[in-house]
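Changelog note: in this version the structure field was regenerated for every chain. One regenerated record is shown below for reference.
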Amino acid sequence: MEIEQVDSFILERTNANRITNRIEVQSLWSGYGSIQRVDLDGGEFSSIIVKHVQPGRGSHPRGWNTDLSHQRKLKSYQVEANWYRKQDVDCKNGFARIPSCLGTKKEGDEVLLLLEDLDASGFKGRKSFVNQTEWEACVSWLATFHAENLDGDATGLWESGTYWHLETRPDELERLDDQVIKKAAPAIDTKLKTNKFQTLVHGDAKLANFCFNSDGTRVAAVDFQYVGGGCGMKDLAYFVGSCFRDEEAEEMEVEVLNYYFTEFRKSLARINSQVSGREVEQDWRPLYRVAWADFHRFMKGWSPGHWKLSDYSERVTREVIESLREENA
C-alpha cells in the first residue's frame, strides 16, 4: 500500500481533518513492518496506533528464515486482523481490556490495523519487571479473558493458540537434541488439547504485551497474532516465565495459581456463567506444569542456551514426562 492509501484510510476511519505527525514506536519482528503512533487534527481521536504489516524476508534474530516461518508470520497477522474484526462484529465489550479497532485493511500479504492509542487512554505503563500489584493485574486480565472466552469460537483464528505449539514448529522439534523431550512432545501436546475445558488463549502473553495504568492496578493487552483455542494454563505459564526467573518462578507457582483461579471464578460470576469454576480449576491446575514443559520443549529446539532454559524448567519437564509415562503405562 502506498503512503497516500494508508493516510486516506486513516482519515476516513477517524473522521480527522489531517495527520499532523507520525512516530515509529517499533519495527515488527524480523522486519515485517512497523507500528506507528499517528497524531491527528480534528475527529474523535488525537492519536491512534497504526500497525502496518509489509512482509519481507528480513533477517531473523536467530536464523529461522524458512518458508514455513514466513508463512506462519503471514498467517499470524491475518489472524490478528480477524480477531479485531470479530470483536467489532460481536460488539464485544469485555472486562479484559484490549484496544478498540478502528479499521482493518488487507492488500495481498500487507495488513493494516488502526487501533486505539492505549497511552492516550490511560495505559502508558510498560514494565520489564513487576511488583505484586502489577503481576496480579496481568494474571487477573488472563483469568478474565479466559473466563469470557470459555468454549470460544476460534474460526479465523489459530485452531491451537500460542506461537510455539507443536504443529507449527516441526523445524524446531527436528533441531531438538534432547531425545527424551523430543519423544514426549506429542504426548505433552495431546494432554493440553484433550482436557475438558478449552478457551481462547492470547498466545503471546508475555509481560511486554501488557500496558499498565498509572498505579499498576489495571492492564490492557496487545498483540493478538497468536490468539486461538487452548487451555488457559498455556498463557499463565508463559506469562510467569516472562516475569520471574528460576527459583522465583518456582516460589511463586502456588500463589500465582491460587490468585488466577480466584479471579477466574470472580469473572465467571460477573458474566453469569453457568460453568463451575471449581471444575475448571480441577481440570486446568494440573496442566500448569504441562504447559510449562510444552514451552520448554520449544525453547530447547529454538534457542539452546537461552536463559529461560532454567534448572526449574528442566526439572518440571522431566517430572511431567515421567507422569505421562505412568498414565500411559
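Spot check on this record: The mean pLDDT is 93. The chain has two domains: 3-116, 132-328.
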